[in-house]
Prior knowledge:
Largest sheet of chain B: 8 strands, antiparallel
CATH architecture of the domain at 138-339 in chain B: 2-Layer Sandwich
Distance between the termini of chain B: 94 Å
Structural class of chain A: alpha+beta
CATH superfamily of the domain at 138-339 in chain B: Ribonuclease H-like superfamily/Ribonuclease H
Pfam families (chain A): PCNA_C (PF02747), PCNA_N (PF00705)
Subcellular location (chain A): Nucleus
Oligomer: heterodimer
Largest sheet of chain A: 9 strands, antiparallel
Strand content of chain A: over 45%
Structural class of chain B: alpha+beta
InterPro entries (chain A): DNA_clamp_sf, Pr_cel_nuc_antig, Pr_cel_nuc_antig_C, Pr_cel_nuc_antig_CS, Pr_cel_nuc_antig_N
CATH architecture of the largest domain in chain A: Box
CATH class of the domain at 138-339 in chain B: Alpha Beta
Radius of gyration of chain A: 19 Å
Distance between the termini of chain A: 55 Å
Organism (chain A): Symbiodinium necroappetens
Number of strands of chain B: 31
Shape of chain B: globular
Low-confidence stretches of chain A: none
Number of domains of chain A: 2
Family (chain A): Belongs to the PCNA family.
Number of strands of chain A: 20
Low-confidence stretches of chain B: 1-5
Strand content of chain B: 15-25%
Shape of chain A: elongated
CATH topology of the largest domain in chain A: Proliferating Cell Nuclear Antigen
CATH topology of the domain at 138-339 in chain B: Nucleotidyltransferase, domain 5
Amino acid sequence: MAMVLDAQLQQAALFKKVAESMKDLCKEVNFDCSEKGMQVQSMDSSHVALVSLNFREAAFAEFKCDRPVSLGMNVDSLTKILKMTGPSDTLKIRHKGDTDVVNFQCEGSDDRISEFDLKLFQIENEHMEIPEQHYKVVAKLPSSEFQKICRDLKEFGETLHLTGDKDGLKFVVSGDIGSGNVLLKPRETEKPEEKVSLTVHEPVTAAFALRYLVNFSKASPLCGSVTLGFAPDAPLLVQYDLETEDKGHMKFYLAPKIDE
Amino acid sequence: MPPSPAGSQKAIVAVQVVRRTPILYFQAEEILLMVSVAGPKLVSPCLKALEGLQLSNSEVQATAVFEANIALILRFLIDNDLGGGRWIEFEAGAFLVVSETSRSTTAQIELDVHLGHGTKFRALPMDTDAGSFVPPLRTAALELSVDVESQLVTGAACVLTVEGQAQPVARAVWLRALATQQVTEEAADSAVLFLSEDEEVLLQHLGETLAAMDADIILTYDLSETVRRMLGKRGIAKAGSPLARSLCRRLGAEVKLTPKSNEVSGMTGRLGFDLQKQVEKDHRLVDYSLGALSQHFCRIPLPELSAATRAKVLRSRPRAYAQHLLRQAEASANIFHHLAYLYNFVEMARVTGCPLSYLLERGQAIKVQCQLLREARLRGFVLPQRPGTGEDTTYEGATVLEPACGFYRCPIAVLDFASLYPSIMMAHNLCYSTLLPPGREKKPDCPDFTESPPTAGSEHATCFVKAQVRKGLLPSILEHLLAARKAAKAQLAQCDPGEAGATRRKVLHGRQLALKLSANSVYGFTGATNGPLPCLEVAGAVTAYGREMIQATKAKVEQHFTTGLGYAYNAEVVYGDTDSVMVKFGPEGFALDEAIKVSKEASTVCSSIFPAPVRLEFEKVYQPFLLMAKKRYAGMAFASSSSSPELETKGIETVRRDWCDLVRHGLEETLKRLLVSDGSDGCQKAIAHVRDVCNDLRQNKIDFRSLVISKSLGRNEYTAKAPHAEVAEKLKKRDATTAPRLGDRVSYLVLAGAAKAKVYEKAEDPLYALENDLPIDADYYLENQLKQPLVRVFELVCGDVHKAESLLFGGLTSQKVVVSTSKGGMGKFVKPRPKCLSCSADIDHGAVCTLCKEKLPEIKAQALGRVRALAEELSQLRAACARDCALPSGAFPQLPADEPVSDQGQASERCLNEGCPVIFSRARVAKQLGSAREALQRLDVKEA
C-alpha cells in the first residue's frame, strides 16, 4: 500500500506543544495534509473560538505528501500518544492510503523506538474562510507575560475588557470582589522575546471571555512572544509562531463578547 | 372570660360528668368533665383558664384535655353522624324554610333546623341508591387572562357543566374591547360574549354572571392566580359584592387572598378546585401546563402561549383570542371530567366523612383522624390532645431483601400480600387502645396479650391485648373499610356495562378507590410524627410484623418447594420488598404456565402460616426479568399465560423526570428489545439500538426535543449554581415578564461549551438554542445522561461493567462525526469555503470536483430526491403544527375581524405554541432543506 503521508520531525516536542495547545478547545480535528504541510482549522466545540494551525512543510526534516488527505484525530488521544515521546526524540508521522489509522513512531537517541497506530475519525465539517481582518490595534508581547495576566485576571471575573490606546495595552476585569487592571506600556529590551510593541491605528476597547484566553495562552511554550490583534466588533487574533515564523503558526480567533 | 357572642351572658353553657376511655394505651374508663362553651372562639380561652386552675379540692384536677382541638365543622358532623358528600333526610316538620328576606346565604334552599334532643334528620346510608346518588352539581370552569405589564384583566371565559348532562349548559367569554358591531340575534350554540373597555365593568359583569350560574365547584387551572386576577391588587372582595357572591354563597362573608401564603379564604358554600395542584399530586408528568395536560389526558391539542404572543393575538386577532380563552376553560372542564375528579372526591368525602374542602386543602391525616373520631364516639373513647412533636424520632421501616441481581431468562413469580399493613393491624389487633403501657405485660394481672416481633434498638417489648379482651378501634375501622370495598367491587361487577350504568360505575369505582386509599393511610397516620396523633409503637409494630412475614415467606417457599419434597427444582427467593417476594421456581426453560401453577400453590401454602385476614396472592410472572438493585428492576409481566405481556419498570430512569427524553425513551426502547417475550435473546438487538442512538447523537441527528431536561424551580434557586436556575436567570434577563416563576418547571439543553465548563454554564433555553443554531454537547448527553443508566442495565446482562461499556460505547470513536456550523459566536465572522457536493473535497467554484464530474447526473438526481423528500417532510410537519397549534377565530361577530394569519414559517420556523410538539423537528428539517436547496442551486437544477 502506498504511503500517502510520510513526514519526519526533528523534535517531537514541537508537535506535542501544538497538540497540547489545542486540547482544551477542540475534541476532534482534521489535519489537512498537502504538499505544503499540515493545516488544522476548527471551531471550538462552543463555536465561540476558532483554531487555525499552519504547520509548514519547512518545519519538518522530511515531508512527503502524495495527494491531499484529511486525517481526523481526537486531540486528547493525540496528546496521550505524544506523551510517550522524549524532548529530543524524532517523530515520524505516516499514513497509508485506504487505511483508517495514522502511525506515529518516535525514536530517541538511546535507540528506543516506540510506535502507535491511532484510529482515525471521519469528520465532516465546513472549511472556513476567514476574511482578512483590519486590526486597529496590534500588540506583540512576551507569551509568558500574556499567560500570567490571563490567569491572574481570571480569578476575578469572566470578562476581559481589552483596551489599546496611546497609553498602552490595558487589561481590565471586574467581578464580585472588585475590579482591577494591568497596563502594559511599550518597552525595548535586549532580549527580543521580552519586548512589548504596540501599534494603534485607532483606540479600541473590546470585551472577551477570559476562559478562552487562558486556554489560548496554553500555547505559550510554542513561542516566546505572542501577537494580539483586535478591532471593534471583530474577533480577537492571538497568534503564536511555531518557534520561528518560517515553520508556521498557530492562530486563535475569539468572537467578541456581546451583552445580551 | 369574654361574654358569649350569642347574646347570652354565659360563656360556659354546661359542664357534665361523663365516662369515657382515653384511646391511648390500654386503660380503663375514666370519669371526665365535658365542658360545653357558647361558641368555638371560647374554646381556647377556656383551655387557658383551666391550665392555671388550682382547685383546693384535690379530688378534681385538670390533668389532660381531650378533643378540644377539633374544628367546629368536624365536631358538628361527627356528633350528628353526618359527613361530607352525604345526603341528609329531614322528617317533615323538623325544619323551617327560611324566607327570602331573612336569608344569610344565596343557597337554593336554606333551612332552619333545631339541634338537640330528638333531632329528626339523618344521613342516608351510602350503600343505598338514594344515598349514593350524585346530584346535578354545577361546575364552572373559569379562566382569566391579564396583561402582564399593567396587571389588568384582559379577558375571561367560563364553561358551566352540570353533572348528568353531557354538553356544557353555558359558555361565556368576557373581553376588554369595544364592540364594533351590534348583534341582536346570537347563534344558539355559540358562546355569549360580553365586551367592555372598562376593567371594573367587566369584572362586575363577570361576578354577576358567575353568581347567576351559582356553581357548586369553581374549577380553575390555578386557583390562587385566578382569584388574584379577579380580585386585583386589593386582594379582597367586599361582602355582598358581585365578585364575592360569585365565589361565595354566604352573604355576609368577604373573599380574600392572603398575598404571602397565596391562600384563598372565604369561599363558603362553593368549592375552589385547583386543577394544576391536584394533577401534580396524583400524576407524575414531565409538563404540567394546561396544554400538556389537555393533550396527555384528553388527546385534545391546546397551544400554550407566551405573554408576548398573548398580547399580540389580543391586538390583532381578538376573535381568536376570545376563542382561545374559551378553549382553555373547556380544557379544564374536560380534564376534570376525564379524571372523574367529581366522583372520586365526593366518594372520598363519603367514605371518610370529611367535608369536601378538607380533602382538597388538607393532607392525609385529617381523613384518618375523622374516621377515628367517629369510631371513638361510637364506642365511648376520647382522643387525647397530643399535637405532633415533629421530632425526628423514627422507627424501623419495611424490609427489603437483598436482591440477587441479574438478568433472568427464566420466569420469576411475584407473590404479594393483599393490603399488607391493614391486614397486619387487623390480624394482631394493633391499635392505640390495645397497646399495653410499657412494662404492663410483666404484671400478673395483665390481660391476654401478644408481643410484636422485636425491633432493633427498642428497649422494651411492644405488646397489644388480644381482640377478645378489647377490639382495637383501628382494626374495626379497617374491617369496615375493607368490607365496604369488597361490597363496592361486587356492586361494580353487577353494574350495567353500557351507557346506562356509566355514572354508577364511576361512582362505585371512585368509592372502592377511596376505600382502598383510606385503608392504606391508617398505618401512615400512626407513624406521622407531625400528625395529630402519632404513636410510633403502633407503626413500629406494623412494620416489624411486615418484616417478619417477608422473612417467613422466604423461608417457607425455600423449604417447601424443594426437590426433596417432590418438586422439579429448588425454589429461590431472588428479591423481596415490603409486601412482595419474587421467586424463581425453576431454571431457564421452565414453562410459564408451570411457574404460574406453582406460584398459586405457593400463595396457598404461605397464606396458611399467617393469621387471617393476611393473605399472600399470586400477582404476576416476569419473563424475562432484569433485577438491577433494590427497588430497581424491569421485566415482561404476564398476569396469566394467555394474556399479552406488558413491560414494567421500577425505579429506572424511564419513569424519572430529571432525565431527558433521549434517556427515557432510549432506555425504554432498549429494554423492550432486551426483554422480548418470545424467548429469543434480545441482547444483540438491544446493543445495536444503543449504538444507533449514540451515533445519531454524535452526528447531530437527534431532535432537540428529546434532549430537553426539565427541573422545577425551587425557593432561592435563582442564586444557586444549578443548570435550571441559571437558565431561569438568563430568561429573566431576556424577558422578565415570561421568565419561569417559583415552582415552574424550567427546560434546558446542555450546549457545547469551553473545556471544563460546568454544566450550569452550558445550560440554555431550548428555543433560544434553536433560534441561534447553537450546538449541543453530545459528549455530555453520552457520558452524563445515556451512559450510566445503560451500563447499569447491561452490566448484569453482559457480566460486568467493562464488558458492557465496551459493547455499548467501545469503538464509537471510529465513527463519523458531523460538525455543524452555527450562526452565533465565530460563525458570524467566517464563511464556509465551497466543497464538492459528492466527496467534500475543497473546490474553488462550481458544484463538484474534477474527479466527481462524471457522476454528475447521478449526483443531480440524488440532490433533487433529497430536496423533494425534505420538502414533503417539512410540509407535513407544518400541517401538523397548523392543525394542533393554530388559534382559530371564534364566531364573535361583535368583535372586529381578525387579521389574516400570515403564511408563517418561510423565513424561520416559529410556532406560537410554547409546547409545540414538532417545532424542533420542523426547525431541523427546514435547516436541512435550506442546505439541500443551496446544493441544488449550485448544481443548476430546478426544483420543480
